[in-house]
Amino acid sequence: MILSVSLIFLSSCQAKESQNNQVTHITLWHGINPPVNRDVFQKLVDKFNQTHVDVQVESIYAGQLDQQLPKILTAVVAQVPPDILSFYPQVTGQFVELGAIVPLEYWLDKLSLKSEISPNLLEELTLNGHLWSIPLYTSNIGIFFRPTLFQAAGITNTPKTWQELREVAKKLTVDRNGDNQPEQYGMLLPMGKGEWTVFSWFPFLFSGGGEVIRNGLPNLNNPGAIHALQFWQDLLKDGSAILSPPERGYEEDAFLQGRVAMQITGPWTYITKSKTDYQVFPIPSDVDQATVTGTGNFYLMKTTPEKKKAALQFLEYVLSEEFQTEWAIGTGFLPVNLKTAQSTAYQQYINQRPWMKVFLEQMGVARARPTLAGYNRLSESLGRAIEASLMGESPQAALKKAQERLDLIWGK
């Protein structure tokens, strides 16, 4: 019954069939948030529709991304997918296994526009030698901090290394009444086993020389991963970090209220829209300087040749300097088009927001999470290990258990 109702809903969401031979209607599903960003995207879709007489794009907000996946998989199995899907790259392997998406390198290689796209972004969207999607936006993670709290603690320089970050966090932790319950903590760490926790920890994994994939298979129990997880645990043992409520590590109330002085997040954050004093510094280094990309992408789904041809016109528009300039300035995400990043309009935009330059400069050391089939299971096991370690289990034991679970899944 549930499946039948889902299929009826999915069918109703499909693009309207062409009313004549001149216009091709295509459907695009996305989960763009917050609503203000959705409005920016819709204006750009409307602009495309107004300037293309032969293609009309129907943009549909299909809900939060994690809530969308069952709906998408149902649509794929029932052979009623949208023509274009916006999602995150880590589901690429799963879509490839299902035969749900179309490789795009043959199309993109013919466009002069390809030279305008950041090469490392295309690398992130590539699997098994094929480009499976194109980037809508990109970003990465840094550490926001409260300058007034730094000043009050006598801190004049932002930390450049893990050790300096640990020392700064201690100085920023304040127990005013001596009850061993600080009113102010140095740092917030995300609690939970969800993707936000995993995403927030990846920069430390990369910086500590760790990995989660070796020879195409999960490899969690390695010295670099243990080292990175130990660092987070050490911050807690020092008493200078506090955990977020479960699965709510992205919330910023504690930072805005001055209960924590530092928070791991990206340029999309509400912090930048608040009246709170803030600045940002790059993820401190250990073995390497590193951060993790947060990229949104578009998949071309397997539909009819006519609809695929029409959809490619829209995807070319998404990559253009025109689209990317309006999108980046309107949303705060980093542009994927190099001409946009160098444009007068965008340079004026970031000159008014100096903190954005930190994220632009970090793109040179930004790395991506894996896109192999089964990433969701890998992420879930990794999230459990992070959560267990933050609750007191040794990083070695937590990662060993996670790896054993994955070995069973992968049949090792």
UniProtKB/TrEMBL annotation:
Positions of transmembrane segments: none
Pfam families registered for this protein in UniProt: SBP_bac_8
InterPro entries xrefs: Bact_solute-bd_prot1, SBP
Protein name: Carbohydrate ABC transporter substrate-binding protein
